[in-house]
Amino acid sequence: VDVYLTDIKYVSPSVSKKYSRAENYFDAASKAVLEMRRQQPEDIFENGLMKKGMIIRHLVLPGNVSQGIKMLDWVNDNLSNDTIISLMGQYMPCGKASEYPTINRKISRREYETVLSHAEMLGFENVYIQELDSSSEEFVPDFDLRGV
Fold it and tell me: Nearest to residue 4, comparing CAs of 40, 31, 44, 42?
């Protein structure tokens, strides 16, 4: 694999258990990310395209700003603050989100900016960010299984 585009969604076991029924999510995800970095220790771009390396994505969830902060702290402590991070603000409540009032809404500008500010405070410079209007139903595909 030349380029890893990976996700770290949760750090806290209680949060990952609640929303994904995977209490050991971060244990597995963090080990995988460390292995990805071992395999691709350097981020290499040519003509604006990534040729080798790793990008860690984190979807900021409403009511869960602490997960983004903890994820950034972990990356800073275990990789470096020159790791490429994509902080996504596109969360759109769908499916069973209605069963969880905390995540049954879009994230607020304040929530997103809190995570962005933490990345800046830690000295991260390679951070992709999104406009919050990317959290729109027009970007949610139909999951009706037509054509499958």
Answer: 40
